[in-house]
Sequence to fold (482 residues):
Amino acid sequence: MNFRNNLRILSYVVLSFSASLLLPLVISIFCREWMCVRAFVWSALISQAVYFAFQFLSTGCKDRSIRVKDGIFVVTATWFFFSALGGLPFLLSGVAPDFSSAFFETASGFTTTGATVFSDVESLPRSIIFYRSLTNFLGGMGVIVLFVALMPRLGNAGMKFAAQEMAGTNKDKILPKSRDSAKYLWMIYVGMTVALIALLIIGGMSPFQSVCIAFSTMSTAGFTPYNNSIEHFNSAYVDVVITLFMFAAAVNFSLIYLVVKGDRKALFRDTEARVYFGVVLVSSLLMALSLTVHNVYPSFISSLRYSAFEYVSLITTTGFTNADFSKWPLFARTVLFTSYLIGGCQGSTGGGVKVIRVCIVAVFLKSVMRQKLHPKGVFAVKFESDIISKRFAYEVIGFLFAYYLIAVVSAVLLAIDPQTSGMESAFSMSLQSIGNVGAGFSLPDFGKVSSFSKLLMSLEMLLGRLEIFTIGVLFTRDFWRR
Fold:
């Protein structure tokens, strides 16, 4: 690897994080939250010290070529540095009791998980509440994609970094191919966020509320200024608007770009998008029917309002809640649980295993069964118009195996902690972490678990956000061989 060049690039990433602290700093000054002012100033100074250290260590760097290993190393290091440095405002302001809590909160924010160590969010300073939502927003489309969009000197070579951050099936239409593509993705992301802010203000929210919630909605993250999430507003208008934008945020942004450019049939031609639409529609209707039959809500429309919100919230890995679904009928909760096994679309801000992987595994299993019926036959595995190689299919299956294996092993380790309240809670926390989903079927208190458990779940969040292999290859011998 080209370590000097990697440190040079990381120095600019750290500097960009330092610059991002300006907004919450201004809010803390405006609100006269002097402890927070000092925390943001010191966090910025420490980040700049890291920047100068990296600049010094990269002095004399002449080779500025970027290889695959460099992309993997820089992306992984970026997310760890953002989580570590991002925890400083929580730690230095005194709202987080220790480093593990601060690291957990920031990792949860940047990876758009939405789990929190704070049992009473409403008691936090306003600048800290805003900062939490800002970490959601920056992490939603990807900090590396934003960095590439803002750094003209990297040119198209910078997309090698973005390709690792948006790691997945590596389908051509999903990964941005140029710096201009990164800019377009962020323009769409920002434009939709601004539109959501305006609609929420029309719905009666204050500008502060609307900005915080819009940041967390478009990033499919889940942080809100209130302990009871979106249920706080008790507004059908707010529920519908947020449901629609959560749903849109989990659609492949490349397809949204094509629609904006005038190709209105792009969404309907895409198999992943059609499956995503169909799963959400059928699941929401089935849940609404169950809620209506059991008289949980007075009408089918009212039931649909809550079922659609909760299902979209979980399948997009946002984690907002507008009702206590733990008290819903078993059938409705069972359908809701399927959202954990799917996730959003590739190339979106949604987390989870992704709809496209579920589709590819289904197509591959269909081919395996045909081969069983006709042992001498030769069958091509096709997804849309592409022929899928067995190597590629095994890679997808390998990801799913690693995803659930990590979730199970982590759950066992979490269960050792007496504060996790048993195996059910441990599994819920583990699935929430690796799936980057803030809400779960049990309601554990993340703030009370041990430092080891917090750091373990933070690692799960980062593994889930970078889709396992980007971080996983760092632990192989081949990666460090010359």
In short: The chain is about 65% helix and 0% strand. The radius of gyration is 22 Å. The CA atoms of residues 100 and 451 lie 5 Å apart.
